[in-house]
Hints:
By secondary structure, this protein is of the alpha/beta class. The chain has helices at 2-7, 10-13, 22-50, 92-95, 134-144, 173-181, 241-244, 269-282, 299-302, 336-342, 379-384, 388-406, 409-424, 432-436; strands at 73-76, 111-113, 118-121, 158-160, 193-196, 217-220, 234-235, 258-262, 286-288, 304-307, 310-313, 321-327, 346-350, 369-370. Strands 9-8-12-13-14 form a five-stranded parallel β-sheet, sandwiched between helices.
Amino acid sequence: MVRLSMCSSGKYSLRGPALIPRMKTKHRIYYITLFSVVLLGLIATGMFQFWPHSIESTADWSLDRRSMHDAPLIQLPVSNPIPERGDLSCRMHTCFDVYRCGYNPKNRIKVYIYPLQRFVDEGGVPISSTGLSREYNDLLSTISDSEFYTDDVTRACLFVPSIDVLNQNSLRIRETAQALAMLPRWDKGMNHLLFNMLPGGPPDYNTALDVPRDRALLAGGGFSTWTYRQGYDVSIPVYSPLSADVELPERQPGPRRYFILSSQTAIHREYRAELERLKEENGEALLLLDKCSNLSQGVASARKRCYKGQVFDYPQILQESSFCVVLRGARLGQATLSDVLQAGCVPIILADSYILPFSEVLDWKRASVVIPEEKLPEMYTILKSIPHRQVEEMQRQACWFWDAYFSSMKAIGMTTLQIINDRIYPYAARTYEQWNNPPVVVSNPLVARSLKTCYNLCPSSLHH
């Protein structure tokens, strides 16, 4: 009865439960409102920080919109500081600020390209004899058209200067270094990426860019084990302008007219003598080509090779051999490697200490044969021991490597950025199979990826 009288009591029926007085009810509403406001603020802040910023300014980097001649002129005082030489101890955890990259749902780094500028010394002389090369323009345009690009410098993880250092032969070393140091975000090269394919110069031809560059990453085309900072630098191919504008006919993997072919024209005399000895021992199985002495200099002669007065088209002749020799020259990195891969000829690489292009991710055992230079006399015997079926697989893989990673400045640039991206977001990195297994070719011609000719439609003009 007591229970019934309490439930029916008018004292509490109009004001809610007896245990919550009116004052406490007001406090509860206040705290719930305050908590809701704070919670909504936190949610909004989190969405702003982590929501993918897909809407970017339309002021993309483009040489088409602003000619190099219209770029602002920057004069370099003689007293300008010079960066330190590349720090050989640099690794991603010591010389790269990964926190600039931050978290984003797409696991993709953002790359900023500095605006075009023309750097000159106090006398008005440019820091480069060539300015912006066609190849570097293609590379920068590729980056600006990619999903890596951002025009917001505050969001950038990686910075790419518009200063062209692809070919060291065209650079004034000191002045180029001063120009790099003047970049607004240089910060001793932290998170900066330089592309160089032709390092060093006479007489010693260093295997890395001689321009002092502080802590900047280097995508280099001729690294040795002494200059390559493993897991930091990226070894890239030397782009071949000769093969890029030549469409080779379809050639299926299998036996070729020649077993071994050598096409390089500036081979050291000791190597040349050893190759000639192998030629005498093995006859028609080995074709030893050289430059043609009876042709005028120029592009036409660069696309010809000769043997005892017989003229061959280059690089087409490379398709006629199962294996093609790639020997070190004045520089470790050789454009011949790209020519050979394009032809589906298995490269025989004789360049001790050479860091092969993209070797961080590519399995070169599947597409090449690496032989120590001292074993050049045994080359023929070594190659004869490889089963025919394996040779065919290597021919196929060589052709695909060229098509996917060597065929254009776009392929080289995007592969470089993807390797760096995989280091920063290792949980989303490409697998060994994705890097090294050719895509499955489907029968439908509308969606099939052709791997037949390994050709490139973009001509080039990189001069060695």
